[in-house]
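Supplementary notes for students who missed Thursday's class. We covered one full example, reproduced here. Read the sequence, then the structure, then the short commentary at the end.
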Amino acid sequence: MKKNKGLLYNHNNKYEFKAMSNGETTESDTFTIARLFLTWIKIGATSFGGGATTQYLIQENFIYKHKWITAEEYANIIGMCQITPGMNIIAYTILIGKKLSGRVGIVVSLIGLILPSATITVAISIIYANVSKFSRVHSALRAVFAAIFGIALATNWRNVKPIIAKNRKRGPLAFGITLGILLGSGIIYVLLNPSVIVLYLLGGLCGAFAYWYISRKTQEA
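Structure (token representation):
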């Protein structure tokens, strides 16, 4: 039996996964390739509402239900994927699949997510093309957007919560810097509308300098 980041492999293609959260080991559901595939199938078939809903379902299944990854690990995955172009959800899927079961996990995860969602999207598009002329359909879609916005708020709070909690434990200075970067990025984006890449670079540089300063002060103390 070999270990890989908390995942214990055995010869029956089944795994026992122990997620690490804040230094404590959390027992999780037994992991198998089949369960990974079925989990992504369920997410792909029920992720109506786009990326925010898909992220929420990923969190619910992988972090809170099965406990195959921790909230902090997921936040790190999001951080890596945000600086890459293209569809972030696909990048999340690839990294989660790789973390849990290597190359096989990547293939299984992608097929599980894309197959049902693509099939349902095609079917709904055909239906919408036939009913889009009715005004009640547009009214219903506006109401749905409000619900999706609420889900997006809940999802983003879950994404940022482990980062805030971790830096709060590091002390008031680290906590203040985290809030400053968070709020400052939002204000700059709304007022000046710069390129997202510029905000990523500024936030990264500010964070790197701040943590260097904190580490230096800690060593001097």
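Commentary. Residues 1-14 have pLDDT under 50 and may be disordered. The longest strand covers residues 14-21. If anything here is unclear, bring it to office hours.
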